[in-house]
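Figure 2 data, in text form.
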Amino acid sequence: MICLLFLALAAISAFVSASPISKRALSDNDINTLQLALYMEHIELSLYSEGCNVFTDAQFTAGGFPTGFHSNICVIAGVSRAVRSFPEPMTDNL
């Protein structure tokens, strides 16, 4: 029974993945969505960077957060900095 279900799912996925992909121009909604995602990346970077730079681990602990939360915020800030540099080439022409 499970084997038949697996085969059916495999057949469906092969059919779906075999459909042709057509390239099209970006619509206004596509552009707005990409710009919104970029703005959200900017906000995320600002939030985590400021949390890392302005506050200390002692302040986070006093606020009820677990010990080490500040270092986690700093790690996320670093990841956000790396991710934020990625979308720029895609949005330069928007």
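Caption note: The helical segments are 2-17, 28-54, 57-62, 69-84, 88-91.
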